[in-house]
Amino acid sequence: MTQISSTGNPKRLQTQINKLQRQNPNSQVSGKVIYENENISTANIKKVETKAIQGYYDKNKQDPPGNQNHPGVK
After folding, report:
1. pLDDT (tens digit, 9 = 90+) per residue, 16-49?
2. Of 42, 57, 73, 10, which is closest to residue 65 (Cα–Cα)?
3. Cys-Cys link to 14, which of 5, 27, 38, 69 (CB 3.0-4.6 A)?
4. 5 SS3 class
C-alpha cells in the first residue's frame, strides 16, 4: 500500500524529491504522480517509472530532466 508523506506526496516520490533537492540545492525540484493506485508495491511502481522514463527516452533520445543514469533505461 502506498504511504503518503506529510507533504501529501507518495512517500517514494517525496524521498526522491528530497534526494534531488540535496544534490541540487540551487534548483527547483518537483515531481508528479504518473500512476495512481494506492495498493501498488514499491517494486511495481519502479517498473511503472522505468517504463515511463524509457518511453520518454525512446521518443526524445535523451533521459527526462532529473533522470540521468536511471538504471534499466536505453
Report:
1. 889 888 888 888 888 888 777 777 788 888 888 8
2. 57
3. 5
4. coil
Nearest to 65 by CA among 20, 19, 18: 20
**Separation CA 45–CA 22 (nearest Å):** 23
Q: What is the greatest pairwise CA distance in the chain?
A: 36
8 Å CB contact between 33 and 13: yes
Query: The dihedral of CA 25, 66, 11, 33: what is its sign?
Result: positive
Amino acid present at 38: E
From first CA to last CA, the distance across the chain in angstroms is: 29
